[in-house]
Amino acid sequence: MKIDSSLAAVVTGGASGLGLATVKALRAAGAKVAIFDLNQEIGEKMAAETGAIFCQCDVLSDESVDAAFAKARAAQGQERALICCAGGGNAIPTARRDKTTGEINIFPSDKFEWVLKLNTVGTFRCITRAAAGMMTLEPLNGERGVLVNTASAAATEGQMGQAAYSAAKAAIVGMTLTIARDLSREGIRVNTIQPGIFATPAMARATPEMLDALGKMVPFPPRLGHADEYASLTLEVIRNGYLNGETLRLDGAIRMQPR
Question: Could you tell me the pLDDT band of residue 256, with boundaries at 50, 70 and 90?
Fold first, then answer.
């Protein structure tokens, strides 16, 4: 699919990190972009800086997602590209014994469920809306649209405490081919990017020493990934019309250790 001023795109989680880098890359290529994000202050600021539009969106809510798509389409037309970067996680062991008291605590089910809702259900909620909208369009060179999801290395090598996040991201990987098959007759492609360790705002709490150590875990290049490298691959996924139903690792060949 050609990326130029005729393309309308939606990026969830587009106000920061991988999503923002993707917004910038799409805008540099001429596309019209809507930033979907929960944080209104930062979202509006980034929209102003990039020339995108901001649509406040909570991917946990049908009503919020529907309203965001309606606003985006009213401003820039029906999107042909959806990039899902919204997500998050927590770090809680499945069950843990307190070293001092011996008390045994378990992973609260509601916190596990929240991570799956945010990542897996939130992604799927946006996919269904975008796909339905794309189905109203006439194909361009046989193609109506493209969906790009974001998983994580945790989907296949989750570290200790990442049970919920691993499950949520593994589900995104698992549903990629199925959704691609569901939408194949409509000319809509579906792919997922599986990033390793990236230098994003989520990593900002780590010390420089920790970041350096994490970077050295990567075989080559021995550093954290850059958000614009994720954005570059996203644009290639959009452009390459034969790429469909795939999960693409972007991780410098790292395979995560248990901790």
Answer: confident
